[in-house]
């Protein structure tokens, strides 16, 4: 019997190569930038919301008519529901950064799933649409974590330009200059608006927006970047 079963399976795999490879068993890829020729760039902010920095970042973005992507930590979001509402009202893109900013490398699938799903529940209870974007705390991941995120339907979002704004000796000028120098179509820039945010972060965002706009860049959310990717793959 067993050889027959084996034969049947082999036959099925020949006919339908995808039979044994459902998307769910594969680790989700980490998207660090979009492949596009359009001059688009996505600003992202991690670890918020924080009462100190999130309102300032939102003010600068709104004044410049720029939509950005915020990766929220559940425990921070719970303490600042009004700021979460503000981000939703301002039509910012909201992704998940975990319920407790837990590093997901070297964790069991159960632990990963709990951290991810708890935050999805927290964010939805605060009026955020079900998150589909995940940013790994510390940028740390492994095959187990990426597989669970893939199974849960998340896009895992990295970055292509690191402003290193969490190092508090980085000046606004240095950050803005780095982003201007490293900007490429489809780039994803990482900042922080949580407890590690700073006045320099706010100023850097204010400085770089007009410069990049002048160079012909359009600021988009990560969701919009992903749509561009999809449009490209259909061509
Ligand atoms: Zn973080």
Helix-strand blueprint:
Layout: H1 2-15, E1 30-31, E2 40-46, H2 54-63, E3 69-72, H3 74-79, H4 81-89, E4 93-96, H5 109-125, E5 133-134, H6 143-151, E6 155-157, E7 161-162, H7 172-182, E8 187-192, H8 199-214, E9 218-219, H9 222-234
Parallel strand pairs: 1-6, 2-3, 2-8, 2-9, 3-4, 5-6, 7-8
This protein binds zinc ion (ZN).
Zinc ion is lined by residues 46-47, 97, 101, 137.
Task: Provide an overview of this structure.
This protein is an alpha/beta fold. Helix content is 45%, strand content 14%. It has helices spanning 2-15, 54-63, 74-79, 81-89, 109-125, 143-151, 172-182, 199-214, 222-234; strands at 30-31, 40-46, 69-72, 93-96, 133-134, 155-157, 161-162, 187-192, 218-219. Helix 2 (54-63) runs parallel beside helix 8 (199-214) and helix 5 packs across helix 6. The termini are far apart. Bound molecules: zinc ion. The site of zinc ion has 5 residues, from loops.
Question: What brief labels describe this structure?
Answer:
235 residues, alpha/beta, TIM Barrel, six-stranded parallel β-sheet, three-stranded parallel β-sheet, 9 helices, binds zinc ion
């Amino acid at each position: 019997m067993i050889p027959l079963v084996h034969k049947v399976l082999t036959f099925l795999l020949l006919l339908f190569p995808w039979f044994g490879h459902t998307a769910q068993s594969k680790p989700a890829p980490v998207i660090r930038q979009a492949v596009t020729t359009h001059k688009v760039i996505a600003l992202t902010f991690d670890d918020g919301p924080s009462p100190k920095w999130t309102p300032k970042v939102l003010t600068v973005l709104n004044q410049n008519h720029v939509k950005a992507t915020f990766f929220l930590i559940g425990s921070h979001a719970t303490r600042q529901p009004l700021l979460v509402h503000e981000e939703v009202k301002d039509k910012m893109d909201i992704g998940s950064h975990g319920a407790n900013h837990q590093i997901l490398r070297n964790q069991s699938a159960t632990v990963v799933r709990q951290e991810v799903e708890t935050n999805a529940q927290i964010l939805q209870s605060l009026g955020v649409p079900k998150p589909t974007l995940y940013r790994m705390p510390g940028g740390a991941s492994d095959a187990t974590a990426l597989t669970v995120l893939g199974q849960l339907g998340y896009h895992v979002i990295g970055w292509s330009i690191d402003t290193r704004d969490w190092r508090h000796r980085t000046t606004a000028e240095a950050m803005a200059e780095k982003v201007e120098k490293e900007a490429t179509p489809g780039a994803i820039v990482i900042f922080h608006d949580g407890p590690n945010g700073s006045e320099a972060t706010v100023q850097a965002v204010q400085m770089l927006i007009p410069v990049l706009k002048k160079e012909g860049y359009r600021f988009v959310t990560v969701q919009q970047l992903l749509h561009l990717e999809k449009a490209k793959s259909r061509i």
